[in-house]
Structures are given as structure tokens and as C-alpha cells.
Amino acid sequence: MTEKKILVGMTTQELESFAEQMGEPRYRGRQIAAWIYRKGVINFDAMTDLPKGMREKLSQIAIINPLEVVDVKVSSDGTTKYLSKLIDGETVECVFIPHGDWDTICVSTQVGCPIGCRFCASGESYARNLSAGEIVGQVLIAKRRDNPNIVFMGMGEPMLNFDNLVKAIKLLNKEVGIGARRMTVSTVGVVQGIRRLAQLEIQVNLAVSLHAPNDELRRKLIPAKLPPISEIMKACWDYFQATKRRITFEYVLLKGINDKIEHAIELSRLLKGLPCHVNLIPYNPTVEEFERPSENAIEKFRQTLAKQGIPVTVRHEHGIEIQGACGQLRRQYLTVSERQ
After folding, report:
1. CATH code, domain with 13
2. Annotated active-site residue in 16, 93, 175, 250
3. Which one of 27, 31, 88, 203 is most buried, counting C-beta atoms within 10 A?
4. Could you tell me the strand order of the sheet in which 312-314 lies?
């Protein structure tokens, strides 16, 4: 049996060629692209400007989205976590976060994560990279309004899936119509990826997950072999010089480990002079090994950075009650049958 063609992940030009291969005019491919990317349809019957015979044939030879939603959890603030099954049976999570006048969609780039940060649930297991279509498919599932913010901060290290990440960014920009400046790529410090992204001149935002102000402490929290902080900072400076875009630094606060005043002072010295913003993320419950700092400790850390001239915000987390906050996404169910 011939495998069905997956349409999400194809450009308009590729869909035009696909229509031609079906014996249809090229403009039919443009119509399919509009239905999938702009109107968000999930079945071929909804493509009402296509001939009935073409719709029937499409249902036999093609699949629109490679993701099938198998579980949805909604928190009291409207944050929604989607668990989706991929064609090979693997699963991935993404999160929709409402903010009143705008939305944010947090998407995954890998099934699990190979980095293995000790405080993050995503690193409990790793299977593979996601395709560009599987990345874009998450956005199409969660998207409710035009031009949401997209943060590549879900499961996985985006820079270790660089080619598919970039293809997904271009598809979201050109096909779905989401502004590049509304997208943020997060990395734990993959220097080669930071430099490659700067060279592409794509106007996306960069967020670096630092979590410690020195290498000794960082190695205890992040076991993966990564460049020293000095090399990461050099790449960040070069990124700013190339793009003129301010960099965000993510810093998970862990009680008694990296939340002391001396850590804040050391962090401020590290970032001094670089146009940046620090997001402080009080630890979200994942494993028993770590605890969330007190509100007083969080505020003292923030004040210390601010007094040193570092722009800083304490992130208000969404979706903690549904395990949908930062660090809580995981490769939760291997197969649909296992969860039933």
C-alpha cells in the first residue's frame, strides 16, 4: 500500500506541483494551501471550491495534518495543552496560552529532549526530531486567532533540529501568515545554531536558557556536553551585532541552588552591556529533587538584577495545574492504546 502524502509541511509551490501530479491545474494547489494554512481546515470535504471528485481522491491519497489530537487538558485560565499522536505512534505536546489581546502557542521541535536538564520533564526520554510539518501542525491545531506569538520552547532543543526548525519558521511566516518577529527560538546554548540563525537574517527572536551564572553550577543542572558560558556569550554578542535584536535569557530559579543574591550579582556581570532581557522562571513542580523559591527570594533576586541595570521580569506561569508550564511538557504517552 502506497503511503499517503502529508500536506502540512508543503509550500504553496509544492502543493501546486502535487495538484499537477493529480492531473489538476496548478491553481488547485494554491486553493489547497489556502484551506490548510489560512483557513485551518482539517478535512477535505470542507474545501468547497474543489471539485467533489478531487476531494474524494485527496482523501484517498493524502493526509492534511500529521498530528492527531488524543488528549486535551484545559486550566482555569484557559491555557490548553494538546497531546498529539504522530503517524509513527510517538506523541508530542504543545500549549495554547491566552493573554487577553493576544495568544501564545508553545510548540515542540523534538519528541522528548536529548539535553536532559535535571529540572525539566521533557528530558526524561528522547525519540527523534520532528519534521517541519509536525512542527507547523502543532500551530494549526492550537491556533485560534491570526498572528499569535510562537515560542519554540516546548519539548526538545530547537537548534539540534535546525533545518526542520527553519523550514517550519518559513512556512509559518509565508504560508500561515505569522510575522517572524512574533516567533522566538529558545536554545540551551547550542553555539553553532545561534551562529547559523544569525546568518539567515530571519527576524525571529532568540532566547537562551542559561539557568546558572557559572559553568560549574550549570554543568550540575544541565548534564549534556555544551560549550562553556564564555563561548555562549560570545555567540550572543555576535548574534546581536548581526541582527540588532535584543536577546532574552531564561533563568529557572531553584530553591537554594541558583537563587542566591551572589548568583544574581554574578549573572548581572555576565550580561552587563549586552542588550538583553532576563525572564526569571520560578521552578514549576516536575521532580522531587527541586523546590520553588519563596516569593521573597524571587523578589530579592529580581531586585538585585534590576539594581545592576539588567531588564528583568518574573514570568507569570500558565498551565501549572495541567502540567503545561515551562519544564513540564513530556513524552507522556507512547501509544494511544497504552493510555486507555
Report:
1. 1.10.150.530
2. 93
3. 31
4. 68-74, 80-85, 91-98, 103-106, 149-152, 183-187, 205-209, 247-253, 276-282, 312-314
Return per-residue pLDDT of the chain as tens, 340 residues: 468 999 999 999 999 999 999 999 999 999 999 999 999 999 999 999 999 999 999 999 999 999 999 999 998 889 999 999 999 999 999 999 998 889 999 999 999 999 988 888 776 779 999 999 999 999 999 999 999 999 999 999 999 999 999 999 999 999 999 999 999 999 999 999 999 999 998 999 999 999 999 999 999 999 899 999 999 999 999 999 999 999 999 999 999 999 999 999 999 999 999 999 999 999 887 766 889 999 999 999 999 999 999 999 998 775 455 444 454 444 454 444 343 3
Q: Do both 55 and 201 map to the same domain?
A: no
Respond yes or no: is residue 250 known to be catalytic: no
CA neighbor of 82 nearest in space, from 73, 211, 232, 304: 73
Nearest to 22 by CA among 65, 55, 45: 55
Decide: 156 and 112 in contact? Cβ < 8 Å. Answer: yes
Q: Contact at 8 Å (CB) between 74 and 142?
A: no
Instruction: Give the chain's domain count.
Output: 2
E strands present in 86-202: 91-98, 103-106, 110-112, 126-129, 149-152, 183-187
Partnered with residue 6 across adjacent β-strands are 63
Range of the structural domain that residue 23 is part of: 5-63
Q: Which of 94, 106, 236, 326 is catalytic?
A: 326
**In a 3-state reduction of DSSP, which class is residue 235?**
helix
